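Record format v2
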Amino acid sequence: MLQINHYTKQYSANGPKAVDDLSLHIRPGEIYGFLGHNGAGKTTTIKACCGLLDFTEGEILVNGMSIKKKPLECKKIMSYIPDNPDLYEFMSGIRYLNFVGDVYGVPVDVREKHIAEYAEDMGITNALAEKVASYSHGMKQKLAIVAALMHEPKLLIMDEPFVGLDPKAAFILKKFMRNFCDNGGAIFFSTHVLEVAEKLCDKIAIIKGGKLLADGDIATVRGNESLEEVFLELVDDIKVEEEHA
Amino acid sequence: MLKILLKNRLLALADQLTGQSKGKKAAKFGTYALLIVLGILILIGCCAGVNALLGNICARLAERGEAWAFYAFAGAAGFILALFLTLFYAQGVIFEAKDNELLLSMPISPSAILASRVGSVYFLNSLFTLVMLCAAGYTVSAQTGGISALSWILLIVCALLLPLLSTTISCLLAWLVSYITRRTGKKVLVQTILSLIAIGALFAVTMGVNKGFFATLTENAGDIAAAFRRVLYPLYAMGLAIADVNWGMLLVFAAICIAPFAITYFVLSKSFIKIVTARNAAKKQKYEATALKGSPVVWSMAKKDLARFFNSPPYMTNAGLGLLYSIGMTIFAMVSGDSIIKNVLAKIPEISNPGAYTTVTAAFVTSFFAAMTTISGCSISVEGKNLWILKSMPVRAKEVLRGKLLSHLVLAIPVSIICSILYLFVAKILTVPGVILMFLMPIAFNCFNALLGLISNLHFGKLDYPSIAKAAKSTSSSLIPMLSTIALVVGTGVLYFMVLREKVDVTIYGIIITAVMIAVDLVLFFYLGSDRAQKRWNELS
């Protein structure tokens, strides 16, 4: 569903590589976690996958189509949820969802059904008449999630999707993510919460300084250790036992 | 702590004035230096302007021994100007600042936070007052052969005292606006009404200040002085203090300025936490599902842009002022009949067909007002941090850009048509070519203005404005279509009268200009759908 081949991004010609020769393959049915410290290159990669950021070298394919050559076709079958959803604050929640429905060409009856279902799941139905400006960070995040699901995407790309969500919404989102992938969808998301990645992901990739350190099935990557131990060893060169000692 | 807060606030204010938020220290220093030079030039310009315009009044008052009234008059002007221009700044910076809660959570006393914010309002007020009083001092000096050094010193002292009074009123009005906004929950409505009142008042004053106004002032200088003495005692005291170096009056004036300021500051500092952390009292609307309506993508984009426009008073008042101005000027033309156009035409010799000239001139005048509407000129800049939404959606640049164009035209063209209809009646345009010209020419110029604004913003617009308000106020790409449209309207008019008057019939000339503008519009419209526009859109981030 999402294939990243030798992706390299440099923000300036002589500057350092923000991401260096990254290759990942996310298949239908997989929840793929993307782990790394702040500034590791996660958001740069995610934005490139969504067509928000041009890149220097490599290729990114969405369902076999190049995001560079066929951006519209790619965007039609995926959704992006940023870490800090700056939505249209001058619109009410329902108006924003209707706008998204218009742009993705979602039939009116389908969008009404999806709004009713997903807004109820996320617990924001009562707030849909209010302006987005009055929403808390968590509510904006929930609205962005509902908007992302409106057109039944095949691929979901999420940057820190659990930030700002209350426990119920986080639980519902996790359940939804699992159902979404069980029904053939694919999810590529970044997170700092290793427990979430460990429990939720089928595969993970760990990135540091723009370079891929490890990737694959979660069981293969962590071996006999916990994901936290593996992450700290790979990213920070810290042996957890030594730290404890 | 107060020093640090005040320094930060003044630097933020300087950045706001220069439109610069980041950059190297040396570059920033250069910009600040340029700002100071510009300030000095404005001061010199004001001194020369006041002396040229009001020197007669000043001389007459000085002859009667009432030079104090001139200082009082300048003080009143500075006071009103400062009050108008700092009211919304005071509201934003004191009561609606986003960092209020952050600062309150730090070990900083509320009174220090308030002092830094009120300090920046006072700084702005004092600039306006200082300019007006210095201009008055220069004029009195020029008309009376010089004033004493002590007078100048007292003038500076008064220029520092008077802003305390305007700052007090600015803060109180800002508090009132915040209170009404919180109670009603109608922030946009309240701010729009107040903005329109302020703009209307300034417009009325500007229209009222003409040659006759100054003549009336000169004739009634004595009455004005008496009125100041009776009604505006603080300004009377200030004027006497400066003109006669009257220390007693200075003390009276200082007491009048300092006491209300101190009381207001004390009351606000005691209730600062309560005011800035108060929640909106308006009732929450509960959503009830109703049938949704789908729209084509371009229209949906336009509706989104219109919602942004109508929900931002600064965007409305800055970019949409031309709409009000067009209607206002057309009504003004209706009230004064077609005499203005006829009077202008009467001064041009050898006009063989005054009726046709009236028609074409009216079409040009209506076209001229198109330039004042700059909605499209900042429509990409106002996307700012929301740009990711459009960029992550499966939409082409041309759909987004056409939506923005539509949102401009859907407001500008109906206004243009209304103005054209009114002018048809005012100028009694009865010929078929005249009627067609009266509608088509302003529409063509409106389209040109909207298209050029959009293309300018696409190529030269900044996207890092922190808010819609700042983008609407600051974006320089709005100036390109405005100045280009004005230059085209005025230029083609001048070209006809200077060169082509003898060679081409005025109606035919009007039709040619309209046809050329329609052709230019089509070229610009097709550019929006071009690969180059798409490429530029892709580059925006």
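Chain A touches chain B at residues 50-54, 71-73, 75-76, 79-80, 82, 86-88, 90-91, 93-95, 98-105, 107-108, 111-112, 115-116, 125-131, 134 (CB under 8 Å).
The CA atoms of residues 13 and 146 of chain A lie 39 Å apart.
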